[in-house]
Amino acid sequence: MKKFLSLLLVLAMTLAFTACSGGGDEAAGDVIKIGVNYELSGGVATYGQSSVDGINLAIEEINAAGGVNGKQIQLVTVDNKSDAAEAYTMTTKLMTSDGVLAVLGPATSGAFKTSIPAAEQAKVPIASGSATADDVTVEYDASGNPDPATLKNYAFRICFNDSYQGTAMAKFAKNNLNATKVALVVDTSSDYGKGLAKNFRATFEADGGTVVAEEAYVDGDTDFNAIITRLAGQEFDCVFIPGYYEEAGLIIKQARAQGINCPILGADGFDSPDLLALAGAAALNDVYFSNHYSSLSQDAVVQNFITAFKAKYDREPDAFNALGYDLAKFVCDAISRAEAETGEAVKAALEATENFAGVTGTFSVDEFHNPVKALVVIGLKDGVQNSAVQVALD
Length: 394
What we know:
Layout: H1 2-29, E1 31-38, H2 45-64, E2 72-79, H3 84-96, E3 102-104, H4 109-122, E4 126-128, E5 155-157, H5 162-175, E6 181-187, H6 191-206, E7 210-217, H7 225-232, E8 238-240, H8 245-257, E9 264-266, H9 273-279, E10 287-291, H10 300-313, H11 319-337, H12 343-351, E11 356-358, E12 361-365, E13 371-372, E14 375-381, E15 384-391
Parallel strand pairs: 1-2, 1-3, 3-4, 4-5, 6-7, 6-8, 8-9, 9-10
Antiparallel strand pairs: 10-14, 11-12, 12-13, 14-15
Helix pairs in contact: 2-11, 3-4, 5-6, 8-9, 11-12
């Protein structure tokens, strides 16, 4: 009897273990894993944190509506610490150890580009909402044209590139501010800053304008008074600062303190709550920057997003929140259209995207895995958005 009971116990445990194992496999089959690799700490953490807040909201909405193809989306989130090498390591981990179907992020161009080789090796799509460097998805030849042979097959983005931003801001300076002379203050330690400056200068000078001065700084600088003193001796109609908010906020504050009261222009790197904290409200007048979205838009898609975001986070969303939100929905939309749950199939579906209606605009994906979309130039008054002008280039 004891032997019989022992056999029954062993059999029961075996069946229980098998049932638990089978349940786990079945549960795993009911989810789709997507990696989230962002700058959650370190120098540009506000970009990563804002992007992930938008991603989380989008995935909550998708899962509440039934998921994708009847499966729930499971996010696997990692922190690359605002470090490019760590971004590559985390991408590799997500695509190998974690077995994700796609990866969202990183936010910055440098970290995203560093991560692309891992995606190409694993044949898993990687997509960024905010990596704006021209050569993120394709390399450029000596004539400045994209070389199709260098296309990064598994890399995508949903934001406009630096050429577009630099060109648009030069047009805005000339056409909207009637500027004929401009001074540049450039972050020469980043591809972002150098790319923006190059395209702004080329467009502004081609339109008959003059760049009367160009000053340089690097990531981490805090004292810009020497630069500003040199600029104060020049005559110009506005200043263009292609850089990130950490330095830009201090440059603007110190420039205003030295009496430079002309319009100051920037790009999407200005978009952070910390810009106001660094510069102060009084300094942030006559400040304009290109961006992906404005809360001033009355479009229903935008207003619905703002309402949902405020309900979840109790604050106004910024452009990185919107880009993260759109990025998650863009990738999930492609997964829903893919012929199979494989990296190759999702890649093909991303390439076939047409007229995706997002918070940051409606766009299709071009042959170089970039979106075809317009941008917005936002104006600040006392640090608060008070104007938004849409700029679309032919």
